[in-house]
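Hi Y.,

Following your request, here is the sequence exactly as I used it, all 63 residues.
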Amino acid sequence: MGRGRAKAKQTKVARDLKYRTHETDFGALAKELHGEDHHSSSSEVEPDEDDWADYADPRRRAD
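Below is the corresponding structure, written out as C-alpha cells. Let me know if you'd prefer a different format.
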C-alpha cells in the first residue's frame, strides 16, 4: 500500500524521458569524455584541499 503515488511519479518521469526531444551537444560531450576541460586551472581544487572537510566528524577516521 502507498506505492501508487511513487509509481505514478516514476511512470511520469519515464514517459517524459522517452518522448521529450533533446538537443544534444555532441561536441561538448566528446570533450567531456576525452578529458578536455574548458575551465581555467585556477578554479581547480588542490588535491590536499577538501571542500567538505569542515563538515567531517573529527571522531571518525578515514580508512
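The mean pLDDT is 77.

Thanks again,
Q.
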